[in-house]
Amino acid sequence: MSDLVTLWLRDAEITSSAGASLAHTLYRIPVTIWMTGPLGAGKTTFLQGLGRELGIPQRLLSPTFALEQRYHTRQCGELLHIDLYRLSPNDAQHLVHSSDHHTGIRCIEWADRLQESPAQEGIDITLAERPDDTGRELTVSFRDLALPSFEQISTWREQFFLSRVIIRHCDAVANAAVRLGEELLKRGQIIRLQALRAAAQVHDLLRFVDFHRGAGHIEEEILPERAQKWEEVKALYPGLHHEAAVSRFLIGQGFPELAEIVRVHGLTLADATRVTIEQRLLYYADKRVKIDEVVSLEERLRDFTERYSHLGKLRESDAWYDEARKTERSLFPDGPPF
Asked: Which parts pass through the membrane (predicted)?
C-alpha cells in the first residue's frame, strides 16, 4: 500500500510552502525525491521551500549547468540536488547511479530523462500545469515506507481480542484524523493520509496493557481466553504503556515508520516529541474523540476527568489538555474545521 496525494498550488508562495511541508513528513533517511514537470512548473521553487525548512541557510538554485549541488541540512545529513535536464538518457542514468549510495536526501529534477522508471524506493513529485491556467497541480506518491492493509490490521485486532469499544474508538480517530488531514491538504500541506489512517486504526491496538478497572474501556465480558491472551501480551512488554508497546509490536511486524507515528500519541508527552505532521494529527484527533464521537477538547477533558479522577490522574488531564490545545492552535490557527 502506498500514499498518493494531489494538491492545487495557486502560486509560487504556496508551491514553496508545500515544499516546506514535505520536511515534516520524512521518516526514513536516506531518501530520494524524484521530480518531474515541464519548464517553469515550480520544481526548484518547491525544493527551495524544502531546503529552507530543513535548515539550509542558502537559497537552492537549479544546478542545470553544474549538474549537482550539495547542501548541509540541520538534521538530515547532506541534501544532494541533481538536475538531469541537459543530459542524454544514458548520461542521466549514469549520474543517478553514481549517487545511489548517498546517505542523506537526494533530490533529482527531470527524473523523466532517465531511460527507465526509478525502481528504487523514494518519493515521486510531479508538477503539472492546470488546464484552466489557475496554477499548478502537485501529485506526491510515497514509495518510501511500508503500510499494513486493513485486512492485516483486522487480523491483529482479532489476534489480540480487541474490544468493540476500542475498535470503534480507533476507527473514529482514523476518520477524524483523515478529515483534519484533508483540510490541511486544501491549504497546500503534504500529508500521508493512508499512513495517518493506518496509524490511527492501530494506535490503541494494545490498549489493554494499561487498562484500569472502572475506566469504561470495554463493554464485553472478559472471557478466560481473552484474559489469558492479554496477560501473555503484557508479559512481552513489561513496564511499557500501550503507545510504546504498539510501537514495538509494529517494528517487529516490519512497519517501523508507522511505529514512529503511533509511539508519541501518549497523553502527557511534550509537543517537541511529535516532529512529523502525521504524529501531530494523530495526537490531536485522538484527544478529540470520546469513544467514537468527535467532541471538543473541553468535553473530552471532562470525560477524562470523570473516568480517571479516582485514579489520581487529574494532573495528567491538565497536562494533555494544555498540549492538545497547543497542537490545535499550531495546526489550525484560525480554529479547527470541526
From this structure: none
